[in-house]
Design a protein that fits this description.
By secondary structure, the protein is mainly alpha-helical. The protein has 5 helices and 2 strands; from the N terminus they run αβααααβ. Helix 1 packs antiparallel against helix 4, helix 2 runs parallel beside helix 4 and helix 2 runs antiparallel to helix 5. The two termini are 13 Å apart.
């Protein structure tokens, strides 16, 4: 059964840097090992991590061929580019179109595997690689714009993970 993620309990996170994002990953990993990590939404923690990692990897290495239709890209750019590149969280509940299926996580991905993928992306950037691949929707973005976009996107997805256990009205 699919959960409407617009209406589930989630933490309102905001990250100002990739270091803050990394610190949150440490917190989530500690909660996982302590047995207190719960989640709301449709994806496990490993799936959330893997989804974020796949998006970050594409912004470093490039996206698969193909773009959404011009009208869709234009509308999304007008509405979402400025908030996204300033680190605002996207709204919950966005369904990815079929041509973006490469962003979807594997049905079964272990916590450790998804976390390792995401940390691998952060390590690449920490070692000097940059988010510079053109976005299929937003076009060319600077590394800073991409970083802000990833911070907001990560805040959305990691907000569904609850290190102190299931929130009232939600759970695994």
């Amino acid at each position: 059964m699919t959960i409407n993620t617009k209406h589930v309990a989630r933490r309102e996170l905001r990250f100002a840097s990739l270091d803050e994002l990394s610190a949150e990953l440490d917190r989530l990993e500690a909660a996982h090992h302590a047995g207190t990590l719960a989640w709301t939404g449709n994806w496990t923690p490993g799936q959330n991590f893997q989804h974020l990692a796949r998006f970050m990897t594409c912004s470093i290495d490039g996206f698969p061929p193909g773009k959404p239709p011009l009208l869709m890209r234009t509308i999304i750019r007008l509405i979402a580019k400025r908030p996204a590149t300033r680190g605002m969280r996207p709204p919950a509940g966005i369904k990815l179109p079929k041509q973006a299926a490469f962003f979807l996580p594997d049905p079964e991905v272990a916590f450790e595997d998804g976390l390792a993928e995401l940390r691998g992306c952060l390590d690449r950037v920490g070692s000097g690689e940059r988010f510079v691949a053109p976005s299929p929707v937003f076009g060319r973005l600077t590394h800073t714009q991409w970083t802000n976009l990833h911070l907001g996107h990560s805040a959305l997805h990691l907000g569904f993970l609850h290190p102190d256990g299931a929130p009232e009205g939600g759970g695994e």
